[in-house]
Amino acid sequence: MTMGNQKCEQKQPARSLKKIVDVSSITSSPINFPDGSSFDFQYVANQQLVGVLQESDNFAFKVKMPIATAPVNSTTTMAGDTNLFNLSKTDGAMMKAFSQEAGVSSYKTQYAQTAWCMVNVPQARIAGSVNSFELIGGGGLTIGYTPAGPLPGTGVASAGIDVKAAQLDLSMMAYSPLTASVMAASNVTSKQTKTAVKFSINFGTWSVGPSAYYQTPLATVTKKALQKAVDGLSSQLEDTEWYTRVMANHDTHLVVVGGTDVNLEVGDQLLVYNEEYYWDGEPCNSKYLGGGAAAGSAVAKIEIDWVGDEISRGKVIEQNDYNAVVGAKVKLFKMHAADYVPPAAGVQPPSDGAESTAGQIVAAAPVKGSSAKATGRR
Prior knowledge:
By secondary structure, the chain is of the alpha+beta class. The protein contains 7 helices and 18 strands. Strands 1, 4, 5, 6, 7, 8, 9 and 10 form an 8-stranded mixed β-sheet that branches.
């Protein structure tokens, strides 16, 4: 019983906010077979990376970015119109309800020409390459490729091979989508990934498509290598400050990108920063030259009062003389306390919108990093 009580008293891991990422690509050479056919390993590596990121405890993977149509050029301007956004059915319905509650009839008027595209920019973009991929059969027979090029497959029968071991070398990096600067890099070597396996490859079946590949232990070996590389990136980015973006301004409330997918919860408080952006030509349609906001220049503080699948809404609890623009950067101020009790809420937005607090925001710097605890540390 004593041991049982001790187990119950163990603290749960601190909640952390997932960084929003997307994928550029994982490059790979094809696997050439002795019968003259080949297997598109690059395709399956990218497919598996998507799955690994979706299962990640540290990254929120976006297949499609939130804004579907550039609002400055769109002929569809009605608030909450689903043609403007890539949202789940529930999130789309709530966005429309929030807009109607706030009396917003057009999104065009609130999208800043220089900043709206920031809504669609993830915090990091992931790319990589499979530098070598070797399938080792009995007697040392090997097919695949190395950095030197395709392996000749000497002695391998043209019909197939009995694979005894597999190994691959994988490089992966996370970089800034705006500046292309490398934020983190990870390498997984052949020595780390070499795994004893036992299965047979029928070259004719493999050349048709990836279905045969997924039915072999090789898919598990590749997935583990991708997971190891992603974990390496995550570890290096642990101290990188989490942020997201304002997606809509509804006066007393702001809608931000990120919901349960990034681990936001009702009661979390966020700071909002309008940034300056500099472009080589047309804003949001040319080379980004730089920008940002001073650390103490937050224009608003919000407290999350509704969390959806991929968006959340926050009530403005402090605001200075400036309104948050769509695309403004949003950083964590503090997570709700462990004993926080969220107010009763329904699926509809409140009808008695509270007025924002006027004047300068009185707030300490936001919590740095993505793993701030629920203690309110500042």
